[in-house]
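[step 3/7] inverse_fold.run input=structure_tokens len=160
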């Protein structure tokens, strides 16, 4: 599992590039690996623009390698049409056989459906690599969807 953690850590670093520009979407990073070498990577840059998986796939110089690669992504690939098409459909279209997911997406339109779609299509999907770190990165997003409230930071100053 250590090798998965190495690449998921890279996904988290990439995802941080989207800080402040992805709202209301989460920050997501994706890395594509072939023979223990990164051949593509991307992150979600702005709401309404292509997701991390799409950018990672587009960055691969030799697309024929995708059929033998592993796609790492910090958040479950989406499975619904929003402002962009489902990332899970792109993964299936490109015939990527192995997918490693940091954490399940809490958004009701996804919430396990992307993982299920990939598995039903015969893909190997590993879930929960650096899960705590992936959830912490998007704590505002997770709080909103899991607790139905905003994530609040309280600053308090008090004198004696």
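[step 3/7] decode complete -> sequence:
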């Amino acid at each position: 599992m250590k090798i998965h953690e190495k690449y998921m850590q890279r996904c988290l670093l990439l995802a941080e590039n989207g800080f402040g520009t992805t709202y209301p979407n989460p920050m997501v990073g994706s890395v594509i690996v072939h023979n223990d070498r990164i051949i593509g990577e991307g992150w979600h840059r702005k709401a309404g623009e292509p997701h991390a998986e799409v950018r990672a796939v587009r960055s691969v110089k030799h697309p024929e390698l995708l059929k033998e690669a592993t796609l790492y992504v910090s958040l479950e690939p989406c499975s619904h049409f929003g402002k962009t098409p489902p990332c899970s459909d792109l993964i299936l279209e490109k015939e990527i056989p192995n997918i490693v997911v940091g954490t399940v997406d809490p958004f009701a339109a996804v919430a396990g459906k992307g993982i299920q779609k990939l598995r039903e299509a015969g893909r190997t999907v590993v879930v929960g690599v650096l899960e705590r770190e992936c959830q912490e990165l998007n704590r505002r997003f997770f709080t909103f969807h899991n607790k139905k409230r905003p994530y609040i930071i309280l600053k308090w100053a008090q004198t004696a």
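[step 4/7] annotate
The beta strands are 29-34, 37-43, 70-73, 98-101, 124-127.
The first strand starts at residue 29 and ends at 34.
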